[in-house]
Backbone:
């Protein structure tokens, strides 16, 4: 199942600041540190030019925002399911408010999945040109956002985010992970100018999509470790404040695993809040290091394998969560066997939950926990562990270092 393809037949919450530990109050708008709104409903020092809203009924505010921002023709982009969930309604409301609206439904590939590939991006671009759109609206989940953000970037027009499920942390990202000729690459793209996350819509999201969002957040355990490892061993850029924001979002999310698994309003709100904050951390840093390490590289490797073999896709966050547990076990085992680590990384690894605890959390949240549950056998798992670092060859993860050491040992054996 693709994360963009949903299977689904009052109170406004303010996303808390770092200072208050993420507690909520009235208001509903957040800034780049998660702080509450100033006057007029727009956050001071906002991470985006427009508002970031997480509230009941927030989707209906999108049409008002588009009108007040002075946009003329808006193209609402969705998949077949999310068009019925919110896309069509948004287009109709914008039209009724005086705007010119178009609705484009991205078509699935031969396997039945909507994927962020050349065909989907080109479909969105051609539709925008045909309508003369001066703003795009992503009405969907992660894949729809990746398609729209790159189309908007290519066209030089802004886009607005209206998520339909709390399934990924990339809603505010400036990078678009796309499939080009069967390979997963991340290209520069546009961040949204505003985000409207409607709790009424999110609460109706299918449970697998909610669990996938939890898995994407859980992956921050290993991504934060790999980021530290890259800093200590290769001098990769690092930002303590951004790391702290990501860690706070992760810990809040993990503490609410049971509520997320139940699909309660508190659980879904905390999950979406955490996903938004993780995305804003990446936006502030300018790269995906805070939220993407070896666990994401393995997820991308599996995705490319599924595409090459014509298999249906598995939710991104589901793959990330499972891969995070696999990587945690691998890292702890290899270091226990004597693989050297800088002291800062050794301390951090000791604090990292082991695979058993991560799998327990994944199950509590209602998601898969083992590769076999994703249809991934031992051979593909081993292949990914040996080759996934090549997906992002410029990233200095511990997985890359472990594989480099294995390759060095193999060459030494050959020369003996």
Residues:
């Amino acid at each position: 199942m693709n994360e963009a393809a949903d299977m689904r037949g009052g109170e406004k919450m303010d996303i808390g600041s770092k200072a208050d530990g993420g507690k909520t109050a009235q208001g509903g708008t957040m800034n780049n540190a998660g702080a509450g709104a100033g006057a007029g409903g727009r956050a001071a020092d906002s991470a985006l030019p427009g508002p970031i809203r997480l509230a009941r009924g927030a989707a209906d505010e999108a049409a008002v925002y588009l009108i007040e921002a002075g946009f003329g023709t808006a193209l609402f982009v969705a998949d077949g399911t999310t068009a019925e969930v919110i896309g069509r309604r948004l287009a109709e409301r914008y039209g009724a408010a005086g705007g010119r609206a178009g609705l484009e439904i991205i078509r699935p590939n031969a396997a039945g999945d909507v994927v962020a590939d050349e065909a989907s991006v080109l479909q969105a671009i051609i539709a925008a040109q045909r309508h003369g759109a001066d703003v795009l609206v992503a009405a969907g989940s992660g894949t729809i956002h990746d398609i729209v953000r790159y189309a908007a970037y290519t066209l030089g027009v802004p886009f607005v985010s209206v998520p339909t499920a709390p399934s990924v942390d990339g809603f505010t990202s400036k990078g678009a992970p796309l499939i080009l000729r069967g390979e997963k690459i991340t290209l520069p793209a546009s961040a949204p100018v505003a985000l409207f996350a409607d709790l009424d819509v999110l609460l109706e999201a299918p449970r697998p999509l909610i669990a996938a969002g939890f898995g994407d957040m859980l992956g921050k355990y290993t991504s934060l470790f790999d980021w530290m490892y890259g800093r200590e061993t290769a001098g990769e850029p690092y930002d303590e404040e951004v790391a702290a924001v990501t860690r706070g979002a992760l810990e809040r999310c993990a503490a609410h695993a049971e509520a997320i698994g139940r699909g309660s309003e508190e659980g879904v709100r905390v999950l979406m809040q955490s996903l938004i904050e993780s995305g804003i951390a990446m936006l502030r840093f300018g790269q995906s290091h805070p939220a993407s390490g070896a666990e994401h590289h393995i997820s991308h490797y599996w995705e490319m394998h599924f595409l090459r073999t014509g298999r249906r896709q598995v939710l991104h966050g589901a793959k990330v969560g499972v891969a995070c547990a696999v990587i945690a076990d691998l890292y702890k085992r290899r270091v226990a066997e004597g693989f050297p680590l800088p002291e800062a990384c050794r301390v951090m690894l000791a604090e990292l939950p082991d695979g058993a605890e991560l799998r327990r959390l994944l199950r509590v949240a209602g998601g898969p926990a083992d590769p076999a549950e994703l249809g991934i056998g031992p051979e593909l798992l081993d292949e990914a562990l040996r080759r996934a670092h090549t997906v992002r060859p410029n990233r200095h993860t511990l997985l890359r270092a472990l594989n480099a050491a294995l390759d060095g040992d193999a060459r030494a054996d050959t020369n003996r």
Notes: Residues 31 and 257 are 25 Å apart (CA to CA). The domain at 207-415 is CATH 1.20.1090.10 (Dehydroquinate synthase-like, alpha domain).
